[in-house]
Amino acid sequence: MTTPHRDRSGRPLVAVTGLGIVTSLGEGRDDNWAALTGGRSGIHRIDRFATDNLRTTIAATVDFVAAEPFCAPALSQELAVRAVAEAIGQAAIGQAGDFPGALFIAVPPVEMEWPQRLALAQASGAAGDVTYADLIAAARSGRFKTWHDLFLFGSVADHVAERFGTKGSPVSLSTACSSGATAIQLGVEAIRRGEVEAALCVGTDGSVNPESLIRFSLLSALSTQNDPPGAASKPFSKNRDGFVMGEGAAALVLEDYDHALARGATVLGFVLGCGERGDSFHRTRSSPDGAPIIAAIREAIDDAGLTPDAIDYVNAHGTATPENDKMESLGLMAVLGERMSGVPISSNKSMIGHTLTAAGAIEAVASLMTLQTGRLPPTINFQVPDPAIALDVVPNVARDASVTRVLSNSFGFGGQNTCLVFGAEPA
């Protein structure tokens, strides 16, 4: 009998056997990787809805996927299904709707948007101000039954679970901008505990709509450099002024390494470490000392059984907001020290925008593609260096490099900080 493969802590090794991705750059690994390494931007002017009087009129929307208009759950669901189908197809596992493991899926917060609210208000028949009770009465009329599944928090997970036959109760989560990475972390932990032999980990987000743009604008979080659209997202540049909203989805098939070997699967890489730290400092801002970010980075590297010297490349959170880029730089310098100035770091968000709940999963796919190809996607739009951020950001043009360990960072509003370490081989 072959000795089970274990990491330095005696836990099952977690292998990646399938990847799927959809972004504004296209559908599938090949199209997205060619565009990312080619430095092509998927950010464009919004034509899905009128942007008159909005300060930000651009986004990285996925316009080639049709879905219910003004309904983030519907688009998020369709994006997730496409990414999962590709990942399962590559892994050659569960293709007949019988996935042998659990589902962990990151989805955007679910709430009715203005078209649906207006329809309910009109259906209520209220003569004056429409109250909450009026809306409930209209909803109970049965006229809006088709909305029921769309606007339940777990509806996307339930649909994906039914479509692909995952086992057990699907887990939906929403931890702000770190959600996609958190979904992967949960899958890793389930495999390490021996609860499952395989996990389907997904991040999806299709929530570009007028209300979301207004809300982020009120937080002064969005770039207003609308012209030209492709130059708006400027991570780590001195003239950065905020992030650009994006849409997309990514899926990873994780397996106990022994399970993958037993069925003859092709292993694409390993999830070596996970780190997570909460930050109760502020609803949107990071703690000024960077302690939670630093702790999350350190924990991920420690969990992988590595030292900071083992990290060859960082796939940055890199939102292009003035504060986030500064705090991410501070955290990396604190953990990797002076060596960080020579470790390449790049932000996919310069090309695909900030895909919010999907970002951690999408960037995990990019990290694993880097391990497979030895190609570093660039940080585009880097023309004005920030003297306070002394990092090698792989400016504007992709680069070949020898990479065996990648750190992928995800830092979210409300202090949700999740970091992952991927490797080409077990640690």
TrEMBL record:
<dbReference type="Pfam" id="PF02801">
    <property type="entry name" value="Ketoacyl-synt_C"/>
</dbReference>
<dbReference type="GO" id="GO:0004315">
    <property type="term" value="F:3-oxoacyl-[acyl-carrier-protein] synthase activity"/>
</dbReference>
<dbReference type="GO" id="GO:0006633">
    <property type="term" value="P:fatty acid biosynthetic process"/>
</dbReference>
<feature type="domain" description="Ketosynthase family 3 (KS3)">
    <location>
        <begin position="11"/>
        <end position="424"/>
    </location>
</feature>
<dbReference type="InterPro" id="IPR014030">
    <property type="entry name" value="Ketoacyl_synth_N"/>
</dbReference>
<dbReference type="InterPro" id="IPR014031">
    <property type="entry name" value="Ketoacyl_synth_C"/>
</dbReference>
<protein>
    <submittedName>
        <fullName>Beta-ketoacyl-ACP synthase II</fullName>
    </submittedName>
</protein>
<dbReference type="Pfam" id="PF00109">
    <property type="entry name" value="ketoacyl-synt"/>
</dbReference>
<dbReference type="InterPro" id="IPR018201">
    <property type="entry name" value="Ketoacyl_synth_AS"/>
</dbReference>
<dbReference type="InterPro" id="IPR016039">
    <property type="entry name" value="Thiolase-like"/>
</dbReference>
<dbReference type="InterPro" id="IPR000794">
    <property type="entry name" value="Beta-ketoacyl_synthase"/>
</dbReference>
<comment type="pathway">
    <text>Lipid metabolism; fatty acid biosynthesis.</text>
</comment>
<dbReference type="InterPro" id="IPR020841">
    <property type="entry name" value="PKS_Beta-ketoAc_synthase_dom"/>
</dbReference>
<keyword id="KW-0808">Transferase</keyword>
<comment type="similarity">
    <text>Belongs to the thiolase-like superfamily. Beta-ketoacyl-ACP synthases family.</text>
</comment>
<dbReference type="GO" id="GO:0005829">
    <property type="term" value="C:cytosol"/>
</dbReference>
